[in-house]
Specification:
Number of domains: 3
Structural class: alpha/beta
Radius of gyration: 31 Å
CATH class of the largest domain: Alpha Beta
Strand order of the largest sheet: 7-6-5-3-2-1-20-21
CATH topology of the largest domain: Metallo-beta-lactamase, Chain A
Strand content: 15-25%
Helix content: 25-40%
Oligomer: single chain
Distance between the termini: 112 Å
Shape: globular
CATH architecture of the largest domain: 4-Layer Sandwich
Number of helices: 16
């Protein structure tokens, strides 16, 4: 039997940046590749994606990336992955291909146009060491997939996004018959989404917004504006269905979502007719239309705030509007969510916000995990996606479903699980895993050191010291200049100014004396390091702050400086 390695490069003990890998000898299969939004202290950072070092070192082994769906947390890092590994094949649904191409084009990332391969329910993709079967699952995106990796040790099931839904709804229907058949094959391991395991119930029917929009939808005297995230396609279905029943036109603000709504899949599911969906430019012509405003993470709030300030094209809010923010805040944007609600309130429009207590994300809750684990009856259970506390609850659900407590395996990013002869144990080695920071320029341009320095600069300011010394004697030949920004106001006779000047003068005096004895002992780099540390210590003692200290010591050759001769008058009388 071929040895199997399991490991995650992201998503473990964090929210977002999900990426899980299965390695069978010389083949690597990647499942999902998402991003997460930066913390408040990570200044100048737009997104955080996984560290792809291991994948770049083993590029020839990668057989493909298999996407559950194109949500930001599952596929937001694909553009950055393709930038690093342009020849990797991405297996995903047709709607995901369109969305990813549009997203990556906006990022201006060059990649192979043939990188995508469309997959559908019950597809089987054969490789040398495994066969991957595709099956439908229910989540916020239509045609969300789970994957069954058939190996000579048994079948491994990966489900990145799913929930249990009793009734069939459009393209969100899960293939429950195939799942039942799959469970009869003998499941070696079930790798399950666990981020919302703390919700002790089934997700259904708490994911629906129908009951919250039905009343406002009947009030034809006002315009209904609903803000959602880009991945909330199920909500789009609900909104359009209710709008059609109420005889309202629907405007979709956002090019990506407009393209999704006009895709063949959505048109067929909702039986849309010409005129049901109106272009953005015509929204103001229909005073009682329904407007869907969408965006990814922070982009949604930026759009809503611009509209509140009447600085967005085609649409602005007024006192007759009813605004519903129909998506609970996600990790990393909670503060922005609150700020946006405050800005919307200033428009005098009626505003309603749905919290995560009333509206649940379409992901597996405790009972969903428990039931799905019971259906599969796996030998091993591996929780992924979420914080450690979520993993413990998912583990509890799996144990209640019949999994042996010793066979529930909780791993961190980079930690390896090894399967040999149908037995999975923890490996001794660890793979390099961490964060790659993305700004407006692209991935890899910002290191963690730079991020920490930005935080230090914003919190404690900067001190710059400059002085000139003689190239030959190393003695000071200029005034010692000290500048501070974002720290304290400094004047020349202040104690901190005098202390710092004296420190610099003393250090350079000692260095010049040592140089006179033995020139080889003189090291400008070492002097700068010493001054940085000692100046930082003085400032810390005097102000309580620890600024960035920049040292500039210039060596100049005094003997070569221009020394003008006194002018003589040659015009003798």
């Amino acid at each position: 039997m071929k040895e199997i390695n399991f490991f995650a490069l992201g998503g473990q003990d964090e929210k977002g940046k999900n990426i899980f890998c299965i390695e069978i000898e010389n083949e690597i299969y990647i499942f999902d590749c998402g991003l997460k939004y930066p913390e408040k202290t990570q200044l100048g950072i737009d997104q955080v994606v996984p560290n792809f070092t291991y994948l770049k070192e083993n590029e020839d082994k990668i057989k493909g990336v298999f996407l559950s769906n194109p949500s930001i947390y599952n596929a937001g890092g694909i553009g950055n992955l393709l930038k690093e590994l342009p020849n990797v094949t991405v297996y995903c649904s047709e709607i995901a291909v369109d969305l990813l191409r549009d997203r990556i084009t906006k990022q201006k990332i060059k990649h192979n146009a043939s990188s995508y391969k469309t997959i559908k329910n019950k597809d089987a993709i054969k490789f040398a060491n495994a066969e991957i079967h595709v099956f439908k699952a229910t989540a916020s995106f239509p045609n969300t997939f789970g994957f069954a990796v058939v190996t000579d040790q048994g079948t491994i099931v990966y489900m990145g996004d799913y929930m249990i839904q009793a009734n069939s709804e459009y393209s969100f229907e899960a293939d429950t018959l195939w799942v039942n058949d799959l469970s009869k094959q003998g499941i070696l391991a079930f790798i399950s989404d666990s981020e919302y395991a703390e919700r002790i119930d089934f997700t259904m029917p708490n994911h629906r917004i129908q009951k919250y929009i039905k009343g406002p939808m009947k009030d034809l005297s006002s315009r209904l504006i609903i803000g959602i995230f880009e991945e909330d396609i199920y909500k789009v279905y609900e909104i359009i269905k209710e709008a059609k029943d109420a005889g309202r036109k629907v405007g979709v603000y956002g090019k990506t979502m407009f393209n999704i709504v006009n895709s063949k899949l959505v048109q067929k599911d909702l039986d849309l007719q010409p005129g049901d969906i109106i272009p953005t430019s015509e929204i103001e012509k229909y005073p009682n239309c329904v407007v869907i405003i969408n965006g990814t993470g922070d982009a949604l709030y930026s759009r809503l705030e611009k509209m509140a300030h009447e600085s967005e094209d085609f649409i602005s809010f007024n006192e007759k509007d009813f605004i519903i923010l129909a998506t609970p805040p996600i990790a990393g944007v909670e503060k922005r969510h609150a700020q946006t609600l405050d800005e919307l309130a200033r428009t005098n429009a009626r505003v309603m916000s749905l919290s995560d207590r009333t509206l649940w994300t379409m992901r597996a809750s405790f009972e969903d995990i428990k039931l799905m684990t019971h259906i599969f009856r796996p030998k091993y259970f591996i929780p992924i996606k979420g914080l450690f506390k979520n993993f413990l609850l998912a583990e509890k659900a799996a144990i209640e479903a019949g999994v042996n407590e010793k066979n529930t395996l909780l791993i961190s990013n980079g930690q390896i699980l090894k399967a040999t002869n149908g037995k999975i144990v923890f490996g001794n080695k660890k793979i390099k895993a961490g964060d790659s920071f993305v700004n407006a320029i692209g991935a890899g341009g910002v290191s963690s050191v730079v991020v920490n320095e930005r935080h230090q600069l914003a919190s404690n300011g900067v001190l710059v010291m400059g002085v000139n010394i003689d190239l030959k004697t190393k003695q000071i030949v200029s005034l010692i200049d000290i500048q501070m920004r974002g720290l304290i106001y400094v004047f020349e006779d202040s104690p901190i100014f005098k202390l710092t000047q004296k420190l610099v003068a003393d250090e350079l005096f000692v260095a010049a004396a040592e140089f006179k004895k033995d020139p080889k002992t003189f090291s400008l780099d070492e002097i700068k390091k010493t001054l940085q540390f000692k100046i930082g210590t003085i400032v810390k003692q005097e102000t309580g702050k620890k600024p960035i200290v920049l040292i500039a010591i210039n060596e100049i050759d005094e003997s070569k400086h221009y020394n003008p001769k006194p002018m003589t008058n040659n015009n003798k009388k």
